[in-house]
Design brief:
Layout lengths: L1 H34 L6 E9 L7 E5 L15 E5 L3 E8 L4 E5 L4 E5 L5 E6 L4 E7 L11 E7 L9 E2 L1
Parallel strand pairs: 1-4, 3-9, 3-10
Antiparallel strand pairs: 1-2, 4-7, 5-6, 5-8, 8-9
């Protein structure tokens, strides 16, 4: 009887962990795979986080692989791409409402916790463009700055997130 109860407990814990962690990741990857044709160009994922209450400043976390990693505080805040690239940013928030603003590209969009926003554009002109949170989101709001670096086609794209 005890062995059966232990097996049921382990099974219940496994189902709970899958429901909380695995299912959202599987659904998101399925959504991207099924709807990938409507995303233009290379896809870059970004997470907005303002963790000042945990002792960390607010930041934009550029994801290096297709799985969302909400705890990667070492994630880069810089995106480096070649001129003429067609890119899509998939942006989500962890904690509060943010507003993603990319100067030089006339991109401005509210980001809500748990929702994924899709922003597509072509990197037309070489240069460094700041992206930031332009809606007050908490104590670390001023720290939420990143950069899109667009290099000329013949230059090497070698740092941060490479596309």
């Amino acid at each position: 009887m005890k062995v059966r109860n232990i097996i049921l407990e382990v099974l219940a814990i496994g189902i709970f962990i899958f429901a909380v962690v695995g299912l959202p990741a599987v659904l998101f990857r399925y959504h991207v795979k099924q709807n990938g044709e409507h995303y233009s160009g290379e896809v870059i994922q970004i997470i907005a986080r303002n963790d000042e209450i945990e002792g960390e400043p607010g930041l934009w976390m550029v994801q290096k692989n297709p799985v969302w990693n909400y705890n990667d505080k070492e994630a880069p805040t810089e995106i480096r791409v070649s001129q003429g690239k067609d890119i899509t940013l998939l942006i989500t928030a962890v904690d509060s409402v943010h507003e993603f603003t990319l100067t030089g590209y006339d991109v401005k969009k509210k980001i809500y916790p748990g929702k994924v926003v899709n922003l597509s554009f072509v990197t037309t002109n070489p240069g460094q463009y700041k992206f930031e949170c332009t809606t007050y989101c908490g104590i670390g709001h001023e720290e939420m700055v990143g950069h899109l670096i667009v290099v000329q086609k013949e230059e090497e794209v070698a740092a941060s997130v490479e596309l």
